[in-house]
Amino acid sequence: MNSNLSTLQRLVTCAGLGMLLCLSTPAALGQRQLLDQVIAIIDKDVLLLSELEDRLTDIRGQAAANNEPLPAEDVLRAEVLEALIVENLQMQFAERVSIRFDDDTINRVLENMARNNDMTFDQYIAMLEERDVYIRTREQVRKQLTLQELQRGIVNRRITISDQEIQNFLNSEMGREVMAAEFFVNHMVVVSDELDATEIKEAKRKFAADLVARLQDGEEFATVFTAAQQARIYLVQTTNFDWLKAEQFPTLFSDIVGTLSLNEVEGPIPAGNGFHIIQLADKRGGTEQIVSQTHIRHIMLTPNEIRDEDQTLSAIQDLRQRIIDGEEFADLARQNSDDATSVVAGGDLDWVSTGGMPAEMEQVVATLALETISEPFRTDGGWHIAEVLGRRDEDLSGEYARRQADNALRNRKFDLELQNWLIEIRAEAFVELVE
């Protein structure tokens, strides 16, 4: 069992959601005859011959589409049967812990599948119905989402990451490489070479400096580059760099890129082949995290069976007026707010980072003066009034780095721990094959 488990997991994955995303494969779309013969009893459920045949058809179809070899038929059949047993055990587990996905979620996945097949949602559904696999496809999507959610929840609880592991990772070469920021850089060069006379080189340098000045004045990089090419005064070229870490750029730029702010321009940078200009267009990753935070408190009233929308709005307006008239915000919040997470603290949400509150609230709070009670505003939770108690930029770089390291270490341990868990539930299960 142990030696074959990785193969079995690959078979389950290949014939699951990944297979459905390329469901235009004819072998995977052919009509199937249901063969309702029980071939295995698995704890409190059974496995049907039709399930095995469907999965084998999917695997053969995908292997043919990708020109991949398959094991001998008897080996393939045995491996797929074992994979389906393990999958069935997981689905029983998911049922016990009430993991379910509604039809709207399934439809959103089908919409993505339709786009991947260059179809509209309706066209894709019509195609599935025409080939008599619509219901089966929906259930396979539901099954794959359920398995992913179950595995993520179970396996992550089994993984422990110590503080020492995090620190060792952050100090390691691999850790520094994983955590390093990536940069997207705009680039152009006013071409020059060693044969250029001194005055020509200086003229090219000044031309490049003028381009830099235009960029610093706010002109778009593409506009400046196109205009410089079309002017035909000097040869201007570009290099389309992909997302790269600083050390992956040419040596000429590697020490500069990491020092640039977003949209900042550097140049002209002299080199043997000309005068280079770079602009930092975007940045992702890295450990530097300076986050804008707002200290806010609020009162929320939610419409209910005894207080409709208009009455709720009227009640929150009344609370606002009482605060303006001198009553304590915190006291009124404790007595009236429907937000269970902040009611004990008198409505105090403490310091909240940008993006950490509902969009409607964030929009109001962003323009609210300090120590001013907002006008009532609506979110999905209900009607609110809010007060900003302070604003700050907080350096969360250390916390962010530790969180990223934890994620990286968890991802490295996930597959092994998943296989261990699958081995355990298979060993503990009652499975009887029916001849």
Main beta sheet, described? 5 strands, antiparallel
Q: What would the CATH topology of the largest domain be?
A: Triger factor/SurA peptide-binding fold
Roughly how many Å apart are the termini? 21 Å
CATH H level, superfamily name of the largest domain: Porin chaperone SurA, peptide-binding domain
Helix % is 40-55%
Care to count the β-strands? 12
Q: Could you state the order of secondary-structure elements as H and E?
A: HHHEEHHHHHHHEHHEEHEEEHHEHEEHE
User: Architecture of the largest domain in CATH?
Assistant: Orthogonal Bundle
Number of helices: 17
Regions with pLDDT < 50 over 5+ consecutive residues?
1-14, 16-35
Multimer state: single chain
Report on this structure.
- This protein is of the alpha+beta class and 435 residues long.
- The chain folds into 3 domains: 5-159, Orthogonal Bundle (Triger factor/SurA peptide-binding fold), CATH 1.10.4030.10; 181-284, Roll (Chitinase A, domain 3); 290-395, Chitinase A, domain 3 (Roll), CATH 3.10.50.40.
- Helix content is 52%, strand content 18%.
- It contains 17 helices and 12 strands.
- The protein has helices spanning 5-14, 17-20, 26-29, 49-65, 73-96, 103-116, 121-130, 134-158, 163-171, 173-179, 198-216, 221-231, 251-257, 309-324, 329-336, 359-366, 397-428; strands at 38-42, 45-48, 182-191, 236-237, 244-245, 265-271, 274-284, 290-301, 348-353, 377-379, 382-395, 431-433.
- Strands 3, 4, 5, 6 and 7 form a 5-stranded antiparallel β-sheet that branches. Strands 9-8-11-10 form a 4-stranded antiparallel β-sheet. Strands 2-1-12 form a 3-stranded antiparallel β-sheet.
- Strand 6 and strand 7 form a beta hairpin.
- Helix 5 (73-96) packs across helix 8 and helix 9 (163-171) crosses helix 17 (397-428).
- It is extended and about 90 Å long.
- The model is unreliable at 1-14 and 16-35 (pLDDT under 50).
